[in-house]
Inverse folding.
């Protein structure tokens, strides 16, 4: 168990902060804090909050707390939970988040302590990654000061695929038997695979694969839920064919994913076919980082 102690003096107030493992009894309070923290920062910059309501944030905290692949901690002051953080440990590259601190307790050291606890946990691995809102200057500065490097500018894209599109690959739902080929493709693009993350996703969200002449050339793990989705393809054409096919599966359900905007042709294709930019984000990394080769999209973790 990681347990840290921090004492912070603000005027005459004396605050003691402990970091401890998250318990099931913490979930409701962590969900409330998560919702309010994201709501405050997003709306103060003119963006819609990531969580539509408190219940949604509570469900996410509950899922993470129960997930054997997630290391979850809370910050506690005088017996009261004031924040939480998570480290996704399903695959060899670790992923951070969401990290949130109660709006009344921010800028007092809890956020830094929560980050230091997951860095200490994951620092012996190959690398740690996160995605942060680019308009949140406070979090960007915190992560940079802790050793994370900015690697990629991203935008959140949302909406249905519209207009005339050509699908040059066969698109279908991903099955357990596809995972080895997904892993091979992911390693060829990213330099590592994310098989355990995909297995962990399957009961909750549908994944899709694209095949050309029987060869698996593209996949997306959760193309309707950007927080969980990552995607890789051999080429931009394979990626657009995959997205077009998923769009036909989706009927009225919009697609939602993070897009590296340096992939200019893919970015323009998404805009041309009816998708819109929701907000800017930044992919940040600590440790091993290989520049992706091919067409790719990160999840909110990596």
């Amino acid at each position: 168990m990681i347990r840290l102690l921090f004492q912070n003096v603000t005027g005459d107030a004396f605050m003691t902060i402990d970091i401890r493992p998250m318990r099931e009894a913490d979930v409701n309070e962590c969900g409330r804090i998560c919702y309010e923290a994201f709501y405050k920062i997003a709306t103060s910059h003119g963006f819609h909050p990531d969580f539509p309501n408190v219940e949604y944030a509570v469900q996410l905290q509950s899922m993470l707390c129960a997930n054997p692949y997630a290391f979850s901690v809370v910050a506690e002051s005088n017996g009261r939970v004031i924040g939480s953080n998570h480290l996704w440990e399903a695959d060899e590259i670790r992923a951070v988040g969401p990290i949130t601190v109660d709006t009344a307790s921010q800028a007092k050291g809890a956020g830094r302590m929560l980050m230091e606890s997951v860095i200490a946990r994951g620092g012996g691995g190959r690398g740690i990654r996160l995605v942060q809102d680019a308009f949140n200057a406070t979090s960007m500065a915190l992560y940079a000061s802790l050793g994370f490097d900015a690697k990629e500018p991203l935008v959140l894209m949302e909406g249905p695929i519209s207009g005339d599109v050509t699908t040059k690959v066969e698109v279908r739902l991903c099955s357990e038997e596809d995972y080895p080929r997904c892993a091979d493709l992911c390693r060829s693009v990213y330099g590592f695979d994310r098989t355990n993350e995909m297995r962990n996703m399957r009961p909750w969200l549908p994944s899709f694969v694209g095949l050309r002449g029987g060869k698996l050339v593209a996949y997306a793990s959760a193309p309707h839920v950007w927080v969980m989705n990552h995607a890789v393809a051999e080429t931009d054409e394979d990626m657009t064919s995959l997205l077009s096919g998923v769009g036909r599966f989706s009927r009225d359900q919009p697609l939602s994913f993070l897009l590296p905007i340096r992939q200019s042709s893919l970015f323009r294709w998404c805009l041309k076919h009816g998708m819109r930019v929701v907000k800017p984000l930044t992919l940040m990394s600590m440790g091993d980082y290989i520049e992706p080769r091919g067409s790719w999209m990160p999840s909110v973790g990596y």
In short: Confidence is low (pLDDT under 50) at residues 1-12. The CA atoms of residues 5 and 199 lie 36 Å apart.
